[in-house]
Design brief:
Chain lengths: 317, 281
């Protein structure tokens, strides 16, 4: 049976196709086969992407109730102008700002160190720094809420005692809560970004450095004149995914404050807000409007970001 | 010559710096492991701390994990294993097919489909969580494995990766296969799949890790306690009214163990899988 099918499908042997049925012959033809290969994506795209995107746009103009939906125009979007929305947006923005400020330069410099000739056991250290990213946010969050626990003997409070400060409840205040989030992000993602930068470094031809040395460049010059400019594509990529990741942050906050409700919403994120309105309160229409507002905001941020890097490039040329 | 020029001081400083960083990176694991060996009452009272207290250490939490009263933990573990295995297998098969199709054939609509792949990659999935949730309700897939797996089983990143990989392979094999009477599908399964083995390795690890750790979507889809996956189950133990630290801490340790084992043996695949988006221009 199998050999028959294989033989029948061969376009170079003209005698065989006569024996099989036309549907099969069509399916095995070289013109149709590519469409069979990409079919899984096309189906998945239509059902699980295009339709949901369409439906979320429609829902954002509706009040969606079980059994009946009502068109309400721009009301959901007008409703966005409220404290919770801005709290969530501010929290994500602060988080993204700090993660960008730490998680771009730090891994970049560490990658340069790890890649330097003077470095020993770089493979081991690379792995050690990467391992935190293997943990789920749930496990990482569990560890960090205990490390930053409010008791006298929790690790970070003991550290404070060592410097003469007193015990604090880290997660009760917005500023220290944000600190815990950023420390958690640094712990989990520094190793990943390090790997991105390392692979970027390895694609820089070493003769560039050699000829710079001949011209009398020191390490500082080489870093700023060769390494940083040539790492630009990687940097753009890391910045882009960091912005997306920063604004999509949710699980970290969910774990630290054991749920979607933190004191004064100091841990509320955009996604947490969508979840609260859309799933917990079942306001699918309003939840959709929040999601689309977030999407518009993200696209705008990214256009600005790419433009910034793009203008940068023009100046260099 | 300049290679040897680094001074011993430089070397020692670098080693010291990275030794400190590695210790910081691994320290939370030490805390977790130590905590899992202490009585849960102690944890509840005092939080996670680094005091060794040898007289308190025992395997009681792990024993409890496998006892009748913690049966739900074993359910979660099983669910996570089943979902990760099915998801990863289906995801690899389907996305390698799509990636191969886009790389090897020239056909009407090819560019359009590839642009769609890139477009899906750029829109954060969180935006369509709510309509997807609604769709799952109408498909009656809430609280099922299918509901977790299906919407994301054909996902753009591995498609992109397989496309890049297949584009880089020599096409002579395919022509040779055709002349020998291999069907278009035979070419894929018998010739291309073995050639793409390294790509499968990288994507298997990346997707399995993502599935094992995924949180938001399973939390939305899953409702009953026996259906929960490990991350959702563990997170459900943290409530504002008191936490089940015995299952939580020891359970977290066992959730990390399989990943660490895979990482130790297949390290290079992690790196090659990760760097697909960033560096390849």
């Amino acid at each position: 049976m199998k050999t028959d099918a294989v033989a029948a499908s061969t376009p170079t042997t003209p005698s065989t196709p006569m024996r099989t049925n036309p549907v099969r012959r069509l399916l095995y033809s070289r013109g149709i086969a590519p469409y069979v290969f990409v079919l899984p994506f096309v189906l998945s795209f239509l059902i699980f992407f295009a339709y949901p995107v369409f439906s979320t746009v429609v829902m954002s103009f509706q009040e969606v109730l079980p059994g009946q939906t009502r068109f309400i125009g721009w009301d959901n979007y007008r409703h966005l102008w409220n404290d919770s929305f801005f709290t969530a947006l501010r929290n994500n923005t602060r988080y993204t700002f700090w993660t960008l400020l730490i998680l771009i330069p730090l891994p970049l410099v560490l990658a340069v160190f790890l890649n330097s000739k003077a470095m020993r056991w770089s493979g081991f250290f690379r792995s050690a720094l990467f391992i935190p990213s293997l943990t789920s946010v749930v496990v990482a969050g569990t560890i960090f809420r205990l490390v930053f626990g409010q008791t006298d003997v929790a690790v970070m409070n003991m550290l404070r005692h060592a410097f003469g400060f007193e015990t604090i409840n880290w997660l009760a205040k917005s500023s220290t809560g944000m600190l815990v989030l950023v420390v958690l992000a640094t712990w989990r993602y520094a190793g990943v970004n390090l790997i991105y930068f390392l692979s970027g470094l390895q694609s820089i031809p070493s003769d560039l450095y050699e000829s710079a040395e001949i011209d009398g460049a020191n390490k500082w010059n080489k870093f700023w004149r060769i390494t940083v400019p040539l790492l630009k594509p990687v940097t753009i990529y890391v910045v882009t995914i960091s912005i997306y990741g920063g604004y999509a942050m949710f699980t970290e906050s969910f774990m630290l404050w054991s749920g979607n409700h933190s004191p004064n919403d100091i841990g509320l994120t955009m996604l947490g807000y969508i979840y609260r309105e859309g799933i917990e309160k079942n306001e699918l229409g309003f939840g959709s409007a929040i999601g689309l507002a977030l999407l518009a905001f993200l696209l705008a941020v990214n256009v600005v970001q790419l433009k910034f890097f793009g203008l940068f490039k023009k100046e260099e040329d | 010559m300049s290679v040897r020029a680094s001074s011993p001081w430089e070397r020692i400083l670098l080693l010291a710096l990275f030794a400190v960083l590695a210790a910081l990176a691994l320290f939370p694991f030490y805390c977790l492991l130590l905590g899992s060996l202490k009585p849960s009452k102690e944890l509840l009272r005092l939080g996670l701390n680094v005091r060794l207290q040898p007289d308190l250490l025992s395997l009681d939490n792990y024993r409890f994990l496998f006892s009748e009263s913690a049966r739900k933990y074993l359910f979660w573990y099983r669910n996570s294993v089943v979902i990760t295995v099915i998801y990863t297998a289906c995801c690899l098969l389907l996305s390698s097919m799509v990636g191969y199709g886009l790389a090897v054939y020239r056909f009407l609509g090819r560019n359009l489909i590839f642009v769609a792949v890139l477009f899906v990659m750029m829109v954060p999935v969180e935006i369509i969580m709510l309509p997807l949730y609604k769709l799952m309700i109408s498909f009656r897939m809430i609280d099922t494995y299918r509901g977790i797996i299906l919407p994301f089983v054909v996902t753009p990143l591995p498609i992109f990766f397989f496309r890049q990989y297949a584009s880089g392979l020599p096409k002579d094999f395919l022509d040779a296969g055709r002349i020998d009477g291999c069907s278009e599908y035979g070419l894929f399964f018998r010739i291309m799949m073995p050639l793409m083995a390294p790509a499968f390795g990288a994507m298997a690890i990346l997707q399995a890790l993502a599935s094992w750790n995924s949180f938001v979507w399973p939390m939305i889809v899953l409702k009953t306690n026996e259906m929960l996956t490990l991350p959702i189950g563990l997170a459900s133990l943290l409530t504002p009214y008191g936490n089940n630290y015995d299952i939580l801490i020891a359970g977290s340790v066992l959730a990390i163990v399989p990943i660490l084992i895979v990482f130790v043996f297949f390290q290079r695949y992690f790196v090659s899988g990760l760097t697909v988006g960033g560096v390849k221009g």
